[in-house]
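[SOLVED] Need 3D model of a three-part complex

Original post:
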Amino acid sequence: MTLRRPESPFRRLGGESGLSEAKSRDPFFRQRRKGRSTTLGATVGRRAFLAHAAAVAASVTIVPFAAHATPEALAAAIKEVTGGKPLREGKVTLDLPPLVENGNTVPLSVKVDSPMTADDHIKAIHVFNEKNPQPHVFNAWLSPANGRAFIATRIKLADAQKVVAIAETGKGEFWTAHAEVIVTIAACIEDIT
Amino acid sequence: MANVLVNAPKTAKKGEIVEIKALIMHVMETGYRPGTNGRIIPRNIIGDFTATWNGREIFRMKMSPAIAANPFVSFAAIASESGTIAFRWSGDEGFVAEHQVSITVT
Amino acid sequence: MTGLRLAAVLLAVFAASFALAQGDPRRSGYREMGPALQKMQDDDAANPAMLFVQAGAAAWAEKAAAGKSCADCHGDATASMKGVAARYPAFSAEAGKPIDLEGRINLCRTTHQQAEALAPESDGLLALSAYVALQSRGQPIAPPDDARLSNLRAEGAELYKRRQGQLNLSCANCHDDHAGRKLAGATIPQGHPTGYPIYRLEWQALGSLKRRLRNCVIGMRAEPWSYDAADYLALESFLMQRAKGMAMDAPGVRP
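Solution:
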């Protein structure tokens, strides 16, 4: 069986199975699934089905479209807000789903333990990530007028990675928390073309 | 006018901490994705979001391309006085959206 | 709420969930999502689909060039459109054939508003269908008991079981035989159309059931049909029949 399909500009197909060619609308990258040739039988039994499923699930390689942010870029971005002052673990609660169902929209919230008074409050909350093309996610500025040091938003994550939240107090101290998230790949997506 | 959905209580007790949620329709195009022609789709994001209570800033956020499409932001504020809470989003390609809600503080 | 009424409500809720646990093995795709996405769908201040609903509510009240708005004929949608989305596709005497909800909206535009039909998957059509579908939230899916739909449903059932595409898979292979299992990290849902139109995170936008089906067809490595193909209507009719009695949860959020 030979079937013509539009060729992905990013890869050549190996084998006759087109299953692995799914293109993604991933926010930062085109993903590529390494072609594993699967022989297509006339009937799809349970084992064959599982083989197909495995072909979709297996060997997912992420092809960076642009350069990754690196651990060094992350460190540099953090240094920009802290000015090199020490970061202490604690006070910050960073909430992200441990298993992300789609990296396009990932609910995130940051809560900081603070009385939010004139003398003792959180002035800013910064969030960074390790593997999107750039380390910045957002910076938010707060004041005692907020009553509670809290922010919730939704972010994009291109890949399984570390997310870091930093809280800056009115006195210029820095507290931090981080989370490791796993980003799963969507199935049955459409072609970009 | 951009499509905006803001959720804040219409009334609150003085000193009460209220939660405010703001959603806005926007593509948040990252500037890292190739389009169908293989060329990069230019970045088009909201970069700044601010909220003011009777003119005083209560929240400000700088967004990057890593904020999801149709940005959602939620934060807290102390109900200080009756008046208006105003929101402003601005970004690439001259994008500006403004929205206000009124709140009665008793 | 009085204690007695509260008790009655709790009892009803308990009875409903008990019935669910006991008898009906059908599960909405909502139940395959993690708590974070369920919360996103449940909170109207956070569900991104509500941006489209808001646009739909505005469009509902907007006068067409010929003078009439949807509201001029249908009044308050919260009353007149309650349960409507739950019983489409339906046979339209006006069109002389079965149509789905989008088809019905466009029929009103072309015949009652002397306006142009809205394009498939256009923001305008999605917004109106989201607004109409919202009015059926919590309502049981109620496909019409209408013999004129039988052929279409049978066609849909046949399509659902037919192996197609380079992978030689049928819809049933995934949604009946392997529902609940993982495929590339995604849980295969049973494929019930309870939440349409949905805000799909993969699309970063609202989309119709047709678009969702199209994605599955592409996933099967079959040639996707064009948006006006009768195959979609047949599948939609079959899927609604298959989900009969399940509660609508539109506009849904799906990964």
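Edit: The two ends of chain C are 37 Å apart (CA to CA).
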